[in-house]
Structure formats: C-alpha cells, structure tokens
Protein: beta-glucosidase
Organism: Alexandrium catenella
Amino acid sequence: VTPRDGIEERAQSFGVEVISRSTVMVSTSLEAARQADLTVFLGAGISRENEDRPALTMDFWAHSLIEKLAAEGPVVVLMQTPGAVMTPWRDHPNVTAIAALFLAGE
C-alpha cells in the first residue's frame, strides 16, 4: 500500500473527499490546494548504493512547492527519505505536521 493509497482509503471511510494531484505542474497543485481544507504533500529523496547523496534535500522541486502550498493553506508534509533532510519551511505557520517516513531497509 502506498502512502497515497492508504490516505485515500482511510479518508473515504470517513466520508472525506480526496483531491489527488500527482503532477509536475505547480499551477495544478496550487489550484487543488486552494480548493482543499488541508493539503497532504508526499515527497521523497532518492539514494543509490555506494554513492553519497548530492544534497540533503528532497528531490526535484519539493521544497519550493511546499512553501507555495503553505502560502495557500494548511499543509502536512510526509517525507520518504534515506536519511536526514533539510526542512527550511518547517517554521511556516501553515506547515502543521511533518512526518519522516524513512526507508524500511531490506
């Protein structure tokens, strides 16, 4: 079960509508956030065997998008990362929760 699938299943059992936007279009994500009472952001950091990570950030545009989503309303951030990650948006008043979902291992 992916985090998104679990959230959708549980939310629907309580009669909560889930608007899911898995997209590279920031404008689409922001429009969905404007319609929502709460945004749940799922982000990740990728690592490889025998290589250092190039940065202590989540991949792609995650940090910028979290800041933009928080400007629209409350955000819960779920991060699946291989270790420590920077969270420059953690003190934003609309970032209401952060959960680090570390890799499960072998």
